[in-house]
Design a protein that fits this description.
The chain is of the alpha/beta class. It contains 25 helices and twelve strands. A hairpin with a 5-residue loop joins strand 9 and strand 10. The relative contact order is 0.12.
Length: 687
């Protein structure tokens, strides 16, 4: 190589390496990742590889164009790091190309998203700024000092000896890059570079970065971006090499038993490895037995209400007396959470209906909307000869509920237009939950009065934005004017008032119809109001939402006018709603199909699992992103106990993912001839 070209190549390498390392370290600091751990070696090696590749490619480009390419590359990487930081703060997850279907929805609240950025997030742009400063003030001085000529570009020589030397140097350069790549790959396997508590191995994450928070911590933001692109266009197969215990189960006298002969025959005949992995997993799941709560609500009506953007701010007798009545007079769980994921509302609604965890890095509800689930909450009640329906006071702009709900067995889905509720297409103005509950009562009047009914309702009025004026956000502002609250929090509370009034309309309507005593109401929040900053939320709550996933804490209530009020301390989430309801109503169901557990079962394990595999209970909080454990009591888990918990969680998350991706429960219903309500059956019923 010519000496000038070699110097320029080395200079480009140093510039790229310095900027990448600074970006990665800055991103780690801003996102509260550990700086000094084994992952930093892996990230430094990736920066070396990228620097060698980029500087090698720039070798063939004239120096005048190199500056422009430098700026473009680091502009993109820096903005990507900034957006990822902002999304994790605002939505609670890092984004992936697999969630691109929701990017359009994000545009609707772009103002709230940008204004949620903390000032130090913009330090993600520091490498870009320093790079620009370098090129303006120092690049020429460096070239002069080291005698690097302008407009250097490699040109093929007519001298064969020179070309041979060039080829030899290229081979050396490529060999060095390849050697570092091998060292990098070895870091995915070397034992001391692995976190023993990590739920997913680095090797598996490298092939399929399905958990962005762990992937970014282990590989860095730049490598994660490349892996995400690779996985989007060339997705890796999900592993199925799970080993299930073949030990004979202990003999237990149980009332709830099943004849598995046909299922066992199916396993013997099935040749698809993935499907059989699912067969073996679910058939070996725990069968929870009946208990003292079994059938407590048998033959009563059921109304499940998923409340939009509701957290514990809603628990306020003075401001929201109707919800407080349900909360205070029913059963409520103080440690209930609604873990956010890529599409929190749609995915959490889906998980509540089928008790499977959604896939971490995609909008599962929409992506797999054509799946059917014979074991869904609707189909279990259909099999009990209930009238089922579902409703939401908005359109299909975000989620195709008309398809999703019907494929889950809802015999009719009502949207805002079919119910004739006034609504605005302007994002800041939503339909009224007061109108919604009035229309729901009309639907109840129209169904078969000789049969009990079951319905799933999803509200909308309390949805963000809260930072701008809106019809619902301004309507009840006067009620909160003397509470010394920030304006956006006042608007949120004004929107909640619509929901509370709607609940009052519903309760009064049921009472007037003489069916309140015969109706059970289940309420839970889909996610916390992430249109508000956590610091703002902290001004009205008695716990810190900035730590330990406390922001995900939301109300969960089961109400019936005839039950005695109770407070439960167990840690739980929406994943346990379906099996709990199925037991309370004494439905015919197999507990093995669900990732959740009946909350009243002696087998219930107090634990809430978050989207990235983090978890929390009375004893500890495990942070999957950092691999840390924080204890709340004197009791501590052994390493083996922690590994067992994490292994079980990893199994549940992966089996849920495999089941959804392979439409497993549709397969199982067809093979074992289980009854289910399909879209075609619903269409026939509607005609």
């Amino acid at each position: 190589m010519k000496k000038g070209i070699t110097k320029n190549l080395f200079k480009n390498f140093i510039i790229i390496l310095s900027a990448l390392l600074l970006l990665e370290i800055t991103f780690k600091i801003i996102n509260s990742f550990k700086i000094i751990d084994w992952s930093i070696i892996r990230i430094m090696l990736s920066c070396l590889i990228f620097s060698l590749i980029f500087s090698g490619l720039l070798y063939f480009i004239s120096k005048n164009k190199q500056k422009f390419i430098f700026i473009i590359i680091f502009l993109f990487i820096s903005l990507y790091a900034l957006v990822q930081t902002g999304f994790n703060n605002f939505i609670g997850v890092y984004i992936s190309l697999n969630t691109s279907s929701q990017f359009g929805a994000v545009i609707d609240y772009i103002r709230e998203f940008v204004f949620s950025f903390k000032w130090y997030y913009y330090f993600n742009l520091l490498p870009l700024v320093l790079l620009i400063i370098y090129f303006i003030f120092f690049d020429k001085k460096v070239d002069k000092k080291f005698r690097i000529r302008k407009n250097i570009k490699y040109k093929k020589s007519k001298n064969k000896k020179t070309n041979k030397i060039f080829i030899k140097n290229v081979i050396k350069y490529a060999s060095l890059t390849f050697a570092i790549c091998l060292v990098y790959v070895s870091t995915l396997f070397i034992p001391f570079m692995q976190n023993k508590l990590q739920t997913v191995s680095n090797k598996r994450l490298f092939m399929n970065p399905t958990i962005p928070s762990i992937s970014i911590r282990q590989f860095g933001i730049t490598m994660f971006g490349l892996l995400d692109v690779k996985n989007y266009f060339l997705p890796a197969e999900q592993p199925t090499e799970y080993v299930f215990s073949e030990e004979e189960p202990k003999e237990e006298k149980k009332t709830r038993t099943f004849d598995d002969a046909n299922w066992e025959n199916l396993i013997e005949e099935e040749t698809n490895e993935t499907i059989n992995t699912l067969n073996k997993y679910f058939i070996n799941n725990k069968i929870t037995d009946v208990n003292s709560y079994t059938g407590l609500f048998e033959n009563k009506n059921l109304i499940v209400i998923m409340m939009e953007s509701v957290n514990d701010i809603f628990i306020n007798e003075e401001d929201y007396p109707n919800f407080y009545k349900l909360y205070n007079e029913g059963w409520h769980w103080e440690n209930n959470y609604s873990p956010r994921n890529s599409c929190a509302t749609g995915n959490n609604e889906m998980s509540g209906m089928i008790s499977l965890y959604s896939i971490n890095n995609n909008c599962t509800a929409n992506e797999y909307k054509n799946n059917t689930y014979f074991e869904s909450i609707f189909n279990l009640f259909n099999n009990k000869d209930y009238t089922t329906f579902s409703a939401h006071d908005y359109t299909a702009h975000y989620y195709d509920r008309a398809t999703i709900h019907r494929n889950m067995g809802s015999t009719h889905y009502y949207d805002v237009e079919e119910m004739g509720i006034d609504f605005s297409s302007q994002y800041r103005n939503w339909a009224s939950d007061e109108d919604f509950m009035t229309k729901v009562l009309d639907i109840i009047d129209s169904v078969d009065q000789d049969k009990p009914f079951m319905t799933w309702l999803t509200t909308v009025t309390s949805h963000q934005p809260y930072s701008v004026s809106s019809i619902q956000g301004d309507y009840y502002l006067d009620l909160f004017a003397d509470q010394n609250l920030k304006k956006d929090l006042q608007r949120y509370k004004s929107k909640l008032k619509y929901l509370d009034n709607g609940l009052g309309i519903l309760i009064q309507g049921l009472e007037e119809r003489g069916i309140l005593d015969d109706t059970v109401i289940v309420l839970f929040g889909d996610h916390y109001p992430y249109g508000l900053s956590k610091d703002t939320i902290n001004t009205v709550l008695d716990y810190d939402t900035n730590i330990d996933y406390e922001a995900e804490r939301v109300p969960f209530v089961i109400y019936n006018s005839e039950i005695e009020s109770k407070i439960y301390k167990e840690y739980t989430s929406y994943i346990n709603i379906l099996p709990t309801v199925a037991n309370l109503f004494d439905l015919e169901y197999d507990p093995r199909y669900f990732m959740g557990t009946d909350l009243f079962s002696e087998d219930y394990n107090s634990l809430v699992v978050f989207a990235d595999g983090s978890w929390k209970n009375e004893i500890a909080y495990y942070n999957a992103a950092n691999g840390d454990v924080k204890y709340f009591t004197d009791k501590e888990y052994s390493l083996e106990e922690l590994q067992e918990i994490n292994s079980n969680i990893d199994m549940k998350l992966n089996m849920s993912s495999l089941a959804i991706k392979n439409n497993y429960f549709n397969y199982l219903s067809e093979k074992l001839n289980f009854k289910k309500t399909t879209t075609e059956e619903v269409d026939r019923n509607d005609k």
